[in-house]
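Run log, item B.
One chain of 280 residues. Sequence copied directly from the ordering sheet:
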Amino acid sequence: MANKKAFFASLKKYIDSEKFSLPIFDGVSVRILIELLKKEPNLHTVEKLILADQSLSGNLLKIANSPQYGGIVETTSVKTAIVKLGTLEVLKITSWDINKKVFKSPDLQANAIMKKLWQHSLGCAFAAGLLSKLLDFGVMQNEAFFAGLFHDIGKLLILKVFVEKKQKEKSTSLQEQLLLEAMDVLHPEYGFFLMQQLKIPQIFAIVARDHHLHEFNQDNYLLVLTRMANHICHHMGIGLVIQDPSFELLETEEAILLKLSESDLETLKDFLRSTSSLTE
């Protein structure tokens, strides 16, 4: 117990100090995401931001010309690709780009944790987005996708802090179980902190902060959708935590609030099972 307290205190001190530099995302990706989350995104602004990132713009054009979206005429401009794909798809592509840049570590053990963390985040993004589409509670699909994707962002921050600390202080060793416990306990606080630092809209910071509370705002349907998506992914073993298989998803407070049917739940599960990137 004393070792755990010392470990937690050391991590908190390191995060709160000036040793660790924020943000952990590049400015361009965050600005694109924030613009796409607006009810009426400025597509000219999105275009300019994407053009500033060569790898992202190249990937966007590649997907726009893929068999799934390709047509008779080749898409050659970012502007045309944005219109062709739609803002939700551009949001997903930008998120994938973040994964390639951010959810990676030179530390092999940390990298394995990051992979599972990314799979859980992506699974929750898809689940929350699909729930918002299946159930009409006034939450836009792109908002639900973003909330699901970044609800556990505090875990990524804590993990990156630890890796940096380990690199600078050679005496630091990876005690995986302690690290996972620290991530579990501290991530709501630091997820909220990080989102405020990045100037992410408050509605998403609240989801990061409150998605594990026993008593939560039941009128905040973005939060309820994300909590439900989180339950589903844990239940299916997508991510770091595997829930008791006897746990009844339809009996959760969130499922009751959302009036989630068994049919909708199975539709969602089938989609997640068919998405190979969540389990490979």
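Observations after the first pass:
- Residues 23-102 form one domain.
- The first helix runs from residue 2 to 16.
Flagged for discussion on Thursday.
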